[in-house]
Amino acid sequence: MEKPILIREDGLRHDGRKPNELRPIKMDVGVLKNADGSAYVEYGGTKVIAAVYGPREVYPRHLALPDRALIRCRYHMAPFSTSDRKSPAPSRREIELSKVIREALESLVFSELYPRTTIDVFIEVLQADGGTRTTGLTAASLALADAGIPMRDLVAGVAVGKVDGVLVLDIDEVEDEYGEADMPIGYAAGIDEIVLLQLNGVLTVEEFREALNLAKWGAEQIYKTMKETLHKKYLKALEE
Ligand code: ADP
């Protein structure tokens, strides 16, 4: 396909968003009955569900850690999540994303409270339209909170991209494919810590600084929505 126009003459993006505008975001927690914690998150056309089990006994047992919980994470794209058929076998990309998301979560969970147990995090991408790792990280963080697992903070994921020379917030698949750079981050706004940062493509030092500020600003909006979503759940539980 020929490269589409990513920044229109009026300065707006191919889908009509302003450069610093997020896609419409939806989220909910407690969406799966069998999991200890769960969450559903949408960033525009990207739809992800996360389930958390644990802390629970580790199988196989030899994997248990004496001083903390073992955190495992599986990021997976459902075979029906893209228009081209995706192989159901775990790809190199899925293995990498499972690792970076796990590391981001490990830095926030108080795993030392639950030695010899495991906390399993499953992220299932139902529909992919760019930013599945960042949407997945947000969903995983909400699912951990929903499971009542103590954490230093929540984390919100969002990616900034450079398209037609302009830095834009929360890129979708078209912007990811045809843009010049893509920088996903995970930001724990309450403690002001970046727990995930990747960069694909090239940015100048000045652009990097600007991109990081834009990403943190976007992540803060998402973080607020995450808190509201969790609040709503507890208010609902009080009414019942
Ligand atoms: P992220 O989803 O975190 O942005 P990538 O930059 O690797 O991760 O992927 C960008 C987008 O490309 C995905 O969100 C998805 O829409 C699409 N994509 C990724 N892998 C596949 C695949 N195997 N088949 C079809 N589309 C894919």
UniProtKB/TrEMBL annotation:
Transmembrane segments: none annotated. The keyword Transmembrane does not apply. Its EC number is 3.1.13.-. It is found in: Cytoplasm. Keywords: Cytoplasm, Exonuclease, Exosome, Hydrolase, Nuclease. GO terms for cellular component: cytoplasmic exosome (RNase complex). SUPFAM superfamilies: Ribonuclease PH domain 2-like (SSF55666), Ribosomal protein S5 domain 2-like (SSF54211). The keyword Lipoprotein does not apply. InterPro entries: ExoRNase_PH_dom1 (IPR001247), ExoRNase_PH_dom2 (IPR015847), ExoRNase_PH_dom2_sf (IPR036345), PNPase/RNase_PH_dom_sf (IPR027408), Ribosomal_Su5_D2-typ_SF (IPR020568), RNase_PH (IPR050080), Rrp41 (IPR011807). Residues 21-150, 153-216 form the Exoribonuclease phosphorolytic domain. GO terms for molecular function: 3'-5'-RNA exonuclease activity; RNA binding. GO terms for biological process: gene expression; nuclear-transcribed mRNA catabolic process; rRNA catabolic process. Component of the archaeal exosome complex. Forms a hexameric ring-like arrangement composed of 3 Rrp41-Rrp42 heterodimers. The hexameric ring associates with a trimer of Rrp4 and/or Csl4 subunits. Belongs to the RNase PH family. Rrp41 subfamily. Catalytic component of the exosome, which is a complex involved in RNA degradation. Has 3'->5' exoribonuclease activity. Can also synthesize heteropolymeric RNA-tails. HAMAP family: Exosome_Rrp41. This is Exosome complex component Rrp41. It comes from Staphylothermus marinus (strain ATCC 43588 / DSM 3639 / JCM 9404 / F1). The lineage of its organism: Archaea, Thermoproteota, Thermoprotei, Desulfurococcales, Desulfurococcaceae. The gene is rrp41.
